[in-house]
Please model this.
Amino acid sequence: MSQTDTQDPQATLAADTAIVRQYLDSALTADRLDPAQQAQYLDPIRQLMAAKNARLVAHYYTSPDLQDLAEASAGFVGDSLEMAKFGRDCDADTLIVAGVRFMGESAKILSPHKTVLMPTLEATCSLDIACPIDKFSAFCDAHPDRIVVVYANTSAAVKARSDWVVTSSIAVDVVEHLLEQGRKIIWAPDKHLGSYIRKTTGADMLLWDAACIVHEEFKVRGLLDMRRVYPDAAILAHPESPAAVLEIADVIGSTTQIINAAKTLDNPQFIVATDQGIFHRLQQVAPDKQFIIAPTAGNDATCRSCANCPWMGMNSLQSLYESLSDGSNEIEVDANLAAKAMIPLQRMLDFAADNQLQVRGRA
Ligand code: 13P
Ligand code: SF4
Model:
C-alpha cells in the first residue's frame, strides 16, 4: 500500500485519497427509477393496495423507491425481525414483503392467516442457500448435547430444526442467556457472526461454515486507507463482516443498531460496512452527516458486490406491481413446518419482551 512506498505523510495521504476516490467512484449507487417511471407504477400500486387491503413491508437494503412507498402508504421499513413483527401486528389482509425469501417466510409463519406476496420469489440469501436442511439436520444429530441456535437468514425448515432463532440485534443476549444455563451451542449459518458472538460471550459454539457474499467482501486494508483519509469518521459494521473488519470497527451492530449509532454519535462522517441500501435511511435520520461505503475490494481489484446484495436488488416497483396485480409470488409455508418454526421464533420474541430488548427499536 502507498504508506509503505513513501515516508512523506502528505504524499501518503494524497496516494490514499486517490485510491479511496477511485473506489468510491467505481462503487455502484442505489438503483432508482426516474420520476416519470415511478409515476407509471405508483398510482396503480396504491389502487391495488387499497383494493386488497395490502401493506408494504420493506427491508432497509431495498431500493429507496420501495422504502419511500412503504413509508408513504402506512407500511413499514425496518430490519428482518421488525418487518415480521409489523406484518404480524398490522390489520392488513395482504402483506407484500420487499426483501429476500426468508423474510417472506418469517412473515407467513408469524401471520399464517394473511396472504404474503413478494415482488420476486427468486430473491434468496447466500446464508440460506449454504445451509440445506438435510446436511444441517445431520450436523445437529451428530451433536445431540448442543442446543441449536440459528440466524433468521435461514429456511423455514432449518428454523423448524432449531431451538432458538435469533437476529443480529439479539444474538449476543440470547447466547449469554444460554451460557448462564451452561449450554453448549450449535450455531448456523453465518461463520463471521458466529465467531463474533463466540468471542464476545466466550460461549462454546460449534460453527456452520457459511458467509454473506456482501459482507464477506469488506476489506480491512481498504478500511484503514479510508480512515486515514477521513480521520474523524467512525466505522460502523454489520457483524456478518469478517473478524479483521470488526476488530477495527467503532460500532458493530444490526441494521437498526447501525442507524441508531449514526443518529447518536457526534462524528461528522461514517464509514459503513453493510449493504448500500441502508444509506437512504441513514441520510434521512442524519442529513448533515456524510456516509461513505466501506471498501469491498483490494487495491486495483474490481469491485465485485460493491456492497449491493444482488437478491435485495431484485425488488423493484415493477416487480411489486406485477405481483400485486396478478397475486403471483405468494409465499406458502407448509402448516406443519410453520408450526414447528414458530416455536423458536416465538422463543426469541418472548425473550426480547421479557428482557425489554430493543429488537423492534425503529430507526
Ligand atoms: P438485519 O436482520 O439486520 O435486517 O439483517 C439482515 C441481513 O440480511 C443482513 O445482511
Ligand atoms: Fe443474505 Fe447477505 Fe443479502 Fe443479507 S446481504 S440477504 S445476508 S446475501
Q: What stands out?
A: The chain has three domains: 2-27+215-308, 35-123+313-332, 126-211+335-363. The two ends are 37 Å apart (CA to CA). The chain is about 45% helix and 15% strand. The longest strand covers residues 54-59.
